[in-house]
Design a protein that fits this description.
TIM Barrel; 41% helix; single chain; 8-stranded parallel beta barrel; alpha/beta; binds 4-nitrophenyl beta-D-glucopyranoside
Length: 467
C-alpha cells in the first residue's frame, strides 16, 4: 500500500522530553521561565526533568528500535547548543549530546529529521524582544548555519520552525504558551512575520551554502485542521471557512508556496477591522520588503501537523477590542458525531487528514508532503491497553494510503506524535500523547509500550515485509 521508501516515524520536541534544563552549560529558554513563573501550566509543572531524555537517551533509542521506525523526528534546544542564543559561545556538551543522538540513530539505520525551533527560544533573546524583534531573523540564521555546519552532513530533513501559528497566537495573543504575552490583534502578526522572514533566510542559507554538499531538504512545519462550512449551502458559512483557512493554514503556507505574500482575504479582513475600530497605524499585518530574501519557494516539501477537523460558521469577536478572533470572524464547531479523545480540542476525524492532503495537493502545486505530527491524547485513568488509540492510528494510516493511491497525493512519510508521553505544554503531564507510557511518579522514568505502540510497530513491519 505504501512505497518502499515511505518514512515511518515518531516525533518529540526538546523541551517536552529532555529535562536537564540547566545541565552541563545549557542556557535557559522561555519555557524554563514560563514554567518557573507560577500560574501558566497545569499543576505548576515544568519540563525541568520531563522524560530526562538528556540522560536517558539510550532508553528512547530502545523504544525507537522496538517500534521499527525508519525515521525519528527530534528538535534541538537552541539554548543547549548556544546558551545565550548567539554563536559567540558554543556549549560543546550540547553539541556532543546531539551528535551522539544522531550517530546512534544512524547506526540503527534510523534517519533523523531535525526541528531547529520547537517553541523554546533562548531567554537571552527574549530579553531583547524575542520574535517581535526584526533582528531575530539573522540570529536564527546564525544558529541554523551553525547546525548545518555541525550536524548537516548527517541530516537529510530539516524543519526550521515548528508551528509558527501556535508560537504566534498561543504565545503572543492568548498568552497561554511562553513567552506568555497577551497583546491581541498586534503581536501575533508581527511574530508570524518575523518567523516567516527567519525561515526564509535559513532556507536561502541552506540553499546557497550547504545544499550541494549535504543534499537535504528544508521546510517549516505548518499545523492545520481540516475545515468545512457548518452548512455547505450557506454563503456566510462558506466565506467564514475561507477566512478561517486564510488565517490559519494560509497565513504561513500562502507566502511560502503560492505568492510570497499573505492571503489577500487575511489582509483585507485585518485592515477592514482596523478601520472599523478606528485603529489608524499602518496595517497590523506587516509587509514583506523587497530587500529581504524572497519568501516564495522556501520549502522543499510540505510538513503538515494534523490533529483534528472543524465545522466553521461566522464568528463571535471580542467587542470593541482588537483581536485576531474579530479579524478572522470565523467560529469553530465540533460535529457531535466526532468522538473526542482526551483534550477537548481533539475530535477524532481520520478522514479529515485525507481531505486536507488532497487540498494541499491542489492548492500548493502538488508538493512532496510529510505528515510531521498526528496523534491521539489520553487524559485521566491510565490505559496501557489503549484500544481506541490503536484504532485511531489504523484508521488514520488507511486514510493516508487512500490519499496516496486514490488521490495521487505525494505523501512521503508519516510521523506519529509522540514517541513518549511527555510535557504537553500548558497541560503539563496531564495529557499523554505517547506510543510509550512514561512513569513520571518514579525516578527511573520507566518507558512502557502502549498497545497502540505495539500495533504501530506491527503496521510498520507489515509494510517493510511488503504485505
Ligand atoms: C503541537 N492547541 O502543538 C506541537 O507541535 C506539539 O509539541 C504538541 O505536543 C502537540 O501539538 C500536541 O498538542 C499544539 O492548543 C499545541 O490547539 C497546542 C495546540 C495545538 C497544537
Amino acid at each position: 500500500m505504501f512505497p518502499r521508501d515511505f518514512a515511518w516515524g515518531a516525533g518529540t520536541a526538546a523541551y517536552q522530553i529532555e529535562g536537564g534544563w540547566q545541565a552541563e552549560g545549557k542556557g535557559p529558554s522561555i519555557w524554563d521561565t514560563f514554567c518557573h513563573e507560577k500560574g501558566g501550566v497545569f499543576g505548576e509543572q515544568s519540563g525541568d526533568v520531563a522524560c530526562n531524555s538528556y540522560e536517558l537517551w539510550e532508553k528512547d533509542l530502545e523504544c525507537i528500535r522496538q517500534l521499527g521506525l525508519t525515521h525519528y523526528r527530534l528538535s534541538f534546544s537552541w539554548s543547549r547548543i548556544l546558551p545565550d542564543g548567539t554563536t559567540r559561545h558554543v556549549n560543546q556538551k550540547g553539541v556532543q549530546y546531539y551528535n551522539k543522538v544522531i550517530d546512534d540513530l544512524l547506526a540503527c539505520d534510523v534517519s533523523p529529521m531535525v526541528t531547529l525551533y520547537h517553541f523554546d527560544l533562548p531567554q537571552a533573546l527574549q530579553d531583547q524582544g524575542g520574535w517581535k524583534s526584526p533582528g531575530i531573523a539573522s540570529l536564527f540564521d546564525s544558529y541554523a548555519k551553525f547546525c548545518f555546519q555541525t550536524f548537516g552532513d548527517r541530516i537529510k530533513l530539516w524543519i526550521t520552525i515548528n508551528e509558527p501559528y501556535v508560537c504566534a497566537k498561543l504565545g503572543h495573543e492568548d498568552g497561554i504558551h511562553a513567552p506568555g504575552l497577551k497583546e491581541p490583534g498586534i503581536a501575533a502578526y508581527l511574530v508570524g512575520h518575523n518567523m516567516l522572514r527567519a525561515h526564509a533566510m535559513v532556507w536561502h542559507s541552506y540553499d546557497s551554502l550547504y545544499r550541494t554538499q549535504q543534499k537535504g531538504w528544508v521546510s517549516l512545519a505548518i499545523n492545520s485542521d481540516w475545515v468545512e462550512p457548518l452548512n455547505a449551502d450557506c454563503t456566510e458559512d462558506i466565506t467564514a471557512t475561507e477566512r478561517y483557512l486564510a488565517f490559519t493554514l494560509g497565513w504561513f503556507a500562502w507566502p511560502v508556496f503560492v505568492t510570497g505574500d499573505y492571503p489577500e482575504i487575511m489582509r483585507s479582513a485585518i485592515d477592514a477591522q482596523s478601520k472599523k475600530l478606528g485603529y489608524n497605524g499602518s496595517s497590523r499585518l506587516p509587509s514583506f520588503s523587497k530587500d529581504q530574501p524572497a519568501i516564495l519557494g522556501t520549502a522543499d516539501f510540505f510538513a503538515l501537523n494534523y490533529y483534528t477537523s472543524r465545522k466553521v460558521k461566522p464568528g463571535s469577536g471580542c467587542g470593541a477590542m482588537l483581536c485576531m478572533k474579530s479579524d478572522r470572524d470565523a467560529g469553530e464547531v465540533l460535529d457531535p458525531s466526532w468522538p473526542i479523545c482526551g483534550v477537548s480540542w481533539l475530535a477524532v476525524v481520520p478522514n479529515g487528514l485525507r481531505k486536507l492532503l488532497k487540498y494541499i495537493k491542489d492548492t500548493f502545486n502538488n508538493p512532496a508532503v510529510y505528515v510531521t505530527e498526528n496523534g491521539f491524547s489520553q487524559v485521566g485513568p491510565l490505559q496501557i491497553e489503549d484500544t481506541q488509540r490503536s484504532v485511531f492510528y489504523r484508521d488514520t494510516i488507511l486514510e493516508v494510503a487512500k490519499a496516496l493511491q486514490e488521490d495521487g497525493v505525494n505523501v512521503r512519510g508519516y510521523f506519529a506524535w509522540s514517541l513518549l508521553d511527555n510535557f504537553e505544554w500548558a497541560d503539563g503531564f496531564s495529557v499523554r500523547f505517547g506510543l510509550y507510557h512514561v512513569d513520571f511518579e518514579d525516578k527511573k522514568l520507566c518507558r512502557t509500550i502502549y498497545k497502540s505502540g505495539r500495533e504501530y510497530a506491527k503496521m510498520i513491519l507489515k509494510h517493510k515485509l511488503g504485505q
